[in-house]
Amino acid sequence: MTTHGYLAREYFGRLLEALRNSGYRCVGPQVLDGAIQYRDLPNAQALPSGWRDSQAPGRYRLEHSNNPRQFAWANGPQALKPFLFAPRETLWCVERDARGALSFRAVLPEAQALAVIGVRACDLAALHLQDAHFLQGQFQDAQYAARRDGLFLVAVNCTHPAATCFCVSTGDGPDVPEANGGCDLVLDEVDDGFIVRSASERGASLIAQLGLAPVTLAQQTVVADQRQQAREAQTRMLPSRDLRPLLDTRLEHPRWADVAARCLSCGNCTSVCPTCFCHSDHESPAIDGSDSTHYREWDSCFTQGHSYIHGITLRADTRLRYRQWLTHKLGAWHDQYGRSGCVGCGRCISWCPVGIDITEEVAALAADTP
Amino acid sequence: MNALHVPAPHVPMEAEIVRRTQESPSVFSLGLRLCDPAQHAAYRFEPGQFNMLYLYGVGEIPISIVSDPEDGDELGHTIRVVGRVTRGFAALKPGDRIGLRGPFGRGWPLLETRGQDLVLVTGGLGCAPLVSVINYVAQRRGEFGRVALLQGVRHMDDMIWRERYARWAKLPDVQVLLAADVAGTGWSWHVGLVTELVDQLAFDVRDARVMVCGPEPMMLASVRKLSASGVADEHIWMSLERNMQCAVGHCGHCQFGAQFLCKDGPVFNYPQIRARLGVKGY
Fold first, then answer.
1. Given a cut of 70, is residue A1 above it in pLDDT?
2. What is the domain extent for residue B19?
3. What local confidence, expressed as pLDDT, does residue B5 receive?
4. Does the beta-carbon distance from B242 to A320 stay under 8 Å?
């Protein structure tokens, strides 16, 4: 069975066709509203051919060139998160009859086979963290599990990290690990096509349908070189993969007040973060009182309500909220899930309306002892 | 103690209010029975665990279970009116139906403390999460050593369950000490803070096991006082409160440092939470 080979760019459609023949709905990156976003992929021509993303603190712009490559960009605001942990969804419904009796009914999403094309290594790492949170604890999240089961992941190694990326320092990219990548296929893009490698049994059986050509030595050299360049291109970094010892001694550092003076507490960072899992429960009763719907929606530790408890808001100001976010993301995650909650995707930097840079804040906290 | 099996972790079960008791002007208790007899018969909990109670069309709140685990008739919940949901619950009467998910969380260390002297320190409605412990110990008086119940309130009118305390005081080797910051006629107990009651204990607390529940400043003051009296940190347990919505460790609101209160707590051994307790914002 073929597990490795070359797919010319004009035959990329075969991959989509093979996935559809196996029952998958395909989504892939496309240019939409000025950003790379994952949407239903009608054909290979819809991929963002020639598009590059230019990212900086508080800045995301797309630029077009004649480069034939379709994956020569780092990322967009979405990761895999919305496909599994829906931004808003119903959990259960309840009906009340004339005598006041209540009947509850669980609501589950329809299981679907979904193939995501163009997944990044950082987003795969984030997916595994969300798996740990929603599936591998004492309780399984039924909604997440229903969507996760049917997921087929086609990763494309990142050749053009953005200026905001720092996945090398978190150990999560820019390449998908050779072993245990946690996806089905891994692609390396070259100018005229793709080197395709299977990373699961499902991936291997799909590859067999593509009619791949052997990989040449020259192609292998190109791939090795561009992987190396992608690693070396990153300038941002976190000083350590485990920042618990540092953060534990900085809880009263003046930098928290400094960042709070710039932070709008808008929650953009938590919305684009591929690992943030907070959500709140809400109720939507029918206007005639006969039934009610209980749903959940993404929440953020930057909101007023997040720390509300019978009349008290524990984190009433932005200083405490930013500190909660950072000490959780880079600290408490280690105790909860065995590693940092940051995968170095840099989204929180680009999509912050005032350009707060997590790596810069950590550097400032680390620079001196309070 | 490990959390027990949760029959309905995500979707409420229908429950009927079988008893409603007004405990004080702002505190009331609801005795609940699951409408499905099989569900009610199968329901098990440990003292210190809580249920998510659902008010139709409004929402859910976490409420600790105050009844005895062996009481098969009803599940007791004592509630203070503080917000939208609790105000709605206060208006319900026997026969009304609500939703119930649970039980959730880890309860009090009743196996680890068997045979030991116990000091239970509570403040305000913090006595509610420990009432089931008191009942548990009262039913199994021979299994524990001496017991002291220390309860403090701000105003003497906030003192609920005076008859219960009087009844518990009559049990062998049980000392009841009450305190109110503000008191007037009819108050024969201590006027001041609950922590000051530690000095009146009839036995040496050094080898006792301590369970504390109440407002955090009161719990911190209690820990300081007890530590000064020679109680080891490892012998102190306390129940914390945070915003809780999902109760299954997923929604993130109840996080306290690395702990999810809803599944890792709400009862913690003090060293587990020592680093963050009292730090503003956690």
1. no
2. 13-104
3. 61
4. no
